[in-house]
Design goal:
The complex is a heterodimer of chains A (302) and B (154).
Chain A: H1 14-29, E1 40-45, H2 51-62, E2 66-70, H3 84-94, E3 97-102, H4 107-114, E4 119-124, H5 130-144, E5 151-155, H6 162-171, E6 177-181, H7 190-198, E7 203-206, E8 218-221, H8 232-241, E9 257-259, H9 280-298
Parallel strand pairs in A: 1-2, 1-3, 3-4, 5-6, 5-8, 6-7, 8-9
Chain B: H1 3-10, E1 17-23, H2 28-34, E2 44-52, E3 56-64, H3 70-74, E4 84-89, E5 92-98, E6 104-106, E7 109-110, E8 126-131, E9 136-139, E10 145-146, E11 152-153
Antiparallel strand pairs in B: 1-3, 1-4, 2-3, 4-5, 6-8, 7-11, 8-9, 9-10
Classes of the chains: A alpha/beta (302), B mainly beta (154).
């Protein structure tokens, strides 16, 4: 895995995913180690991000590494019209690894092809966000004890949600049964469904979540964004139909857990937070360990 | 007089070169662009909206003194999936083949996604052909699917 960029979740094999998750488990036991003191990681965030950027930077700092970079593009030469190509070639001189978030889709693949140092994609527009997927897999593994043969429900905006697309693709390696819950206009695109069909896995589509809840092991909730709807009334109706509250999870399985990539708006009522079945804040913490595992693997430290 | 003879009167025969037949009528100009015949020095004859028994109407292009490499011709399969290629020498048919959609396409098609890096940076769009029958192209960079209806040529 040394020097191997991670742009799309499929760039790594199932075995490589499992290796990262195993290593993340070690970092969870021992997250502060001085093993990166000779490494510089560039963190290039061309658009704002809270969780992803901070968890990458926290991951590196806890291992003794140095971070250079920016958290928005306004004060950089990008503002002066510099091409992404030139920015990447320059920054590669100053660092051993580049973590990049960029609103332009395909920018991370492009960067990985021209950069002499490896690239980790921290989100390229609506396309891919593979480190989120790795931490989702880690959270599922941790709460269920396995990744194999699970029933996983995905709820919300399945059409535009990049975390959903990457997670579906990754789970296709683990004989998952998919329960896809969305308004009809936000169904999972056929290009993603193609992966489920290729592996001959079972999937069911719903427009309401009630009947799914007692059957599923994981409920992966996502935010429905208002700007996806031309009719504000339609948005109001849908927003309320996809709202999870405390009473709804009463009859779920013992091992049932609620995941959410965050930020949440109204789709999970705060009265769910105190339930032992709510896992979304721990999920965000897992991001640090998974990113430590990924970075040290790519740098050849682990 | 049958249709074939009428057509040959409309588009005269060439002595040496390539005939591209069975092009959908609305794709003739796209084929001309893909094969860069706009900047070609020898004689190029073309016609469109000709009667075709198989397809209703069709277009045809005849290119003098030019024989194409198969990779070059296969690019036109994107817009003319049933085109036949006839090589002519001394007014005689030398060979007749059907175009084949390539597995990978570089540089000729524009990614339909305006937010794709190929529409922002100096980099050629590359596609994997995921469905040859319906012409569905998956962008190597943004991973979005360009279809026949959203396809534009560079």
């Amino acid at each position: 895995m040394k020097n191997k960029s991670l742009v799309s979740i499929n760039d790594y094999t199932k075995e490589e995913h499992i290796r990262i998750l195993d290593l993340a488990k070690e970092f969870e036991k021992n997250p502060v180690q001085n093993i990166m003191q000779h490494h510089v990681v560039a963190s290039l965030f061309f658009e704002p991000s809270t969780r992803t950027r901070l968890s990458f930077e926290s991951a590196v700092n806890r291992l003794g590494g140095k971070i250079v970079g920016f958290s928005e593009a306004t004060n950089t030469s990008v503002k002066k019209g510099e091409s992404l190509r030139d920015t990447i070639l320059t920054v590669a001189n100053y660092s051993d690894l580049i973590v990049m978030r960029n609103p332009i889709e395909g920018s991370a693949r492009f960067a990985s092809e021209i950069s002499p140092v490896p690239i980790i994609n921290a989100g390229d527009g609506a396309n891919q966000h593979p480190t989120q997927t790795l931490l989702d897999l880690y959270s599922i593994l941790k709460t269920q004890g396995t990744l194999d043969n699970l029933h996983i429900a995905m709820v919300g905006d399945l059409k535009y949600g990049r975390t959903i697309h990457s997670l579906v693709i990754a789970l296709c390696n683990f004989n998952t049964t998919f329960h896809l819950v969305s308004p009809p206009e936000l169904k999972l695109p056929s290009s993603v469904k193609m992966h489920i069909k290729e592996k001959n896995l079972a999937y069911h589509q719903y427009t309401e979540m009630d009947e799914v809840l007692p059957r599923t092991d994981i409920l992966y909730m996502t935010r429905i964004q208002q700007e996806r709807f031309s009719d504000p009334l339609e948005y109001e109706r849908i927003k309320n139909a996809f709202n999870l509250h405390q009473d709804m999870i009463a009859d779920t399985k013992e091992n049932f857990r609620v995941l959410h990539p965050l930020p949440r708006v109204k789709e999970i009522n705060i009265n769910v937070d105190k339930s032992a079945k709510a896992y979304y804040f721990e999920q965000a913490l897992n991001g640090v360990f998974v990113r430590q595992a990924l970075i040290t693997s790519i740098l050849g430290i682990k | 007089m049958n249709h074939k003879k009428i057509r040959e009167l409309k588009v005269s025969a060439i002595e040496d070169g390539t005939v591209i037949d069975h092009i959908p009528s609305n794709a003739v100009f796209q084929v001309i662009r893909i094969l860069k015949l706009e900047v070609f020095d020898n004689m190029v004859l073309f016609a469109t909206n000709l009667e075709s028994k198989k397809y209703g109407t069709k277009g045809i292009i005849k290119v003098s003194n030019k024989f194409f490499a198969p990779e070059e011709l296969n690019k036109i399969a994107l817009v003319a999936p049933h085109a036949s290629i006839i090589e002519i020498r001394g007014y005689q048919v030398q060979s007749k083949t059907i175009v084949e959609t390539p597995d990978r396409i570089k540089g000729i098609v524009k990614c339909f996604n305006p937010n794709c890096v190929t529409n922002m940076e100096e980099v050629a769009a590359i596609f994997t052909v995921v469905d040859k029958e319906d012409t569905r192209l998956k962008c190597h960079y943004c991973e979005k699917i360009t279809t026949r209806t959203t396809m534009e040529f560079r």
